[in-house]
Design a protein that fits this description.
Shape: globular
CATH class of the largest domain: Alpha Beta
Number of strands: 20
Structural class: alpha/beta
Oligomer: single chain
Number of domains: 3
Number of helices: 19
Length: 536
């Protein structure tokens, strides 16, 4: 069967319907009949290709889809592949096209009537906005840090690398807007990526400017990142900062630097941006996919799961006791750990994350004197290759409840904890109800971060290490819980415990006691001690 095709144009949207075989001969017909319309009608900013009756697609057909995708990206538009048949999806999977195409199986009329340029905030984003911005008037920034660059770093090539990464990922075009009818905060991916300038200033001017590097974001309608390249009399720097409502923590900072490093090394080697550029994974497309994939029964099951997990939380039972010596401002303390290093985890039956999470839960049980722990743990939300290449907020904060009522050795406990972690990730789509109801606001939260980006350490660029420098604290604390338990892994394989805490509730001595207790618990866990013995 040869190809039967048609097109419909309504406002700025084109629907292309394909039936039969999309091969070299039929692509030539499409190039005569449809492609000129796409090229000349530049107001078209969304194309839907209906493949519900397409039986076959050849390499020529794939090239047509790819070229159309590129055109849409070039005009900040969308390409939607609607309901490809099994034979066609098999070709997409074997060629890797399924990794970057926006494939949708929803009702066609819903897709045609939907404005694909305005998106609701995802549950985690709404939670970030509420807890960090509305509650404590904090920008909750993810500082990639102020990095003092080695003198050999070519600042002009770095500038091009940064600009290319920004253009590659639509999350950097994200801006928050208020819906004119409902007042709800939504997001659009149509912001401008302007040129990154290389600022020149004296050493003295630079020192004076450090207090203003971390700007307070104007959240509505504005750019939600801040990147500056600075050349002083004696040094050169890059400063990187993201708003937490669009980009998440250390995971995204490391991905961002990795992308910059790829471009920097290749451009330094003589390649051009056009030779290096690839079609990125779109965060807006991820949101569309997520919105169309929620199963009602699965969501209901997940909501009930999280309600049972969080029911009965009490600050008096599930957080360290209040400290009468507490001060009035929130604080952060970094406690080096000498009880363990990275080498311990080689060939172990449990993960590094599970081990430290178990240690944090046991520590909480010991300092509260309670057998039951209710706290949260943070997962960066990236579970496959597509998501690891995706720039945009993916983290989730999972409530977890555990009762240390029966004796068992550490390894058996960690095995059960691993199973619980896997079970919780199966319910991640229904976490929105937890965020919306605000039940996690006062939970202690465990975070394991691979590298303390933004505080200290180095960043590699073109094989050269560049030093991260400390910055003055210029924003209000955005701690939405009584304390965050953060375990950082350093380049030399050692760890440190960082405690972000409400200094109106706890003193430094209380936090040091928590850190010392956790150190001792880790020593006993390494020996596979019994849980009840650890909690004595």
């Amino acid at each position: 069967m040869s190809l039967v095709f048609s097109k419909e144009i309504e406002n700025t949207q084109m629907l292309i319907t394909l039936e039969g075989r999309l091969d070299g001969a039929s692509v030539r017909e499409i190039n005569k009949e449809i492609v000129p319309e796409i090229d000349t009608k530049t107001e078209i900013d969304e194309i839907i290709i209906d493949m519900e009756k397409l039986k076959y697609i050849s390499s020529a057909g794939l090239r047509f889809v790819l070229s159309t995708q590129k055109k849409m990206i070039g005009r900040n538009g969308n390409l939607i592949v609607f309901k490809p048949t099994e034979d066609v999806i098999d070709v997409f999977k074997s060629t890797g096209f399924d990794e970057f195409l926006n494939i949708v199986y929803s009702d066609l009329e819903e897709i045609k009537n939907e404005d694909h340029h305005v998106y609701p905030l995802r549950p985690i984003q709404r939670w970030m906005m509420d807890t960090h911005f509305n509650r404590v008037n904090s920008t909750m920034m993810n500082a990639g840090g102020l990095v003092r660059l080695d003198e050999s770093i070519n600042l002009d090539i770095l500038k091009t690398s940064v600009e290319t990464v920004l253009q590659d990922h639509d999350i950097f075009k994200c801006r928050f807007v208020a819906d004119k009818d409902t007042g709800e905060i939504c997001q659009r991916f149509d912001g401008e990526i302007g040129e990154i300038t290389i600022e020149k200033m004296s050493d003295e001017e630079f020192e004076n400017s450090k207090n203003t590097l971390k700007k307070i974001y104007k959240l509505i309608g504005s750019q939600l990142w801040n990147i500056r390249l600075i050349r002083t009399d004696s040094a050169q720097y890059i400063f990187v900062d993201f708003y937490h409502g669009i980009l998440d923590g250390v995971a995204i900072v490391l991905l961002f630097w990795r992308e910059i490093d790829k471009y920097y090394k290749s451009l330094l080697g003589g390649k051009t941006v056009d030779e290096l550029r690839r079609i990125p994974t779109s965060y807006a497309a991820y949101i569309r996919e997520e919105l169309s994939s929620d199963d009602e029964e699965t969501m209901k099951e997940g909501i009930n799961y999280w309600k049972a997990m969080t029911e009965g939380f009490s600050k008096e039972k599930h957080l360290p006791p209040k400290d009468s010596n507490a001060e009035s401002e929130d604080a952060e303390e970094d406690f080096p750990f000498d009880s363990i290093d990275k080498a311990f985890f080689k060939d172990k039956p449990f993960s590094e994350h599970c081990f430290f999470m178990g240690a944090a839960m046991l520590t909480m049980a010991k300092v509260t004197g309670e057998k039951e722990v209710i706290m949260s743990w943070v997962h960066n939300g990236r579970t496959n290759g597509k998501e690891f290449r995706l720039m945009g907020i993916m983290l989730e904060q999972f409530p977890i409840r555990w009762s240390f009522s029966e004796d068992e050795n550490t390894n058996d406990f960690l095995s059960k904890l691993e199973d619980k972690i896997k079970e919780e990730t199966l319910h991640r789509r229904s976490l929105g109800t937890v965020y919306e109801e605000g039940v996690q606001i006062n939970f202690s939260c465990f975070i394991l971060q691979k590298g303390a980006i933004g505080r200290h350490g180095t960043i590699s660029l073109g094989g050269i290490k560049n030093q991260i420098e400390e910055l003055p604290q210029s924003e209000e604390s955005a701690s939405e819980s009584a304390m965050d338990i953060e375990l950082n892994e350093h380049e030399d394989g050692t760890y440190s415990l960082v405690l972000d805490y409400d200094a109106g509730l706890y003193s430094y001595s209380a936090m040091k006691n928590f850190a010392d207790t956790m150190q001792e618990i880790i020593r006993k866990m390494k020996e596979n001690s019994g849980i009840l013995d650890i909690l004595k």
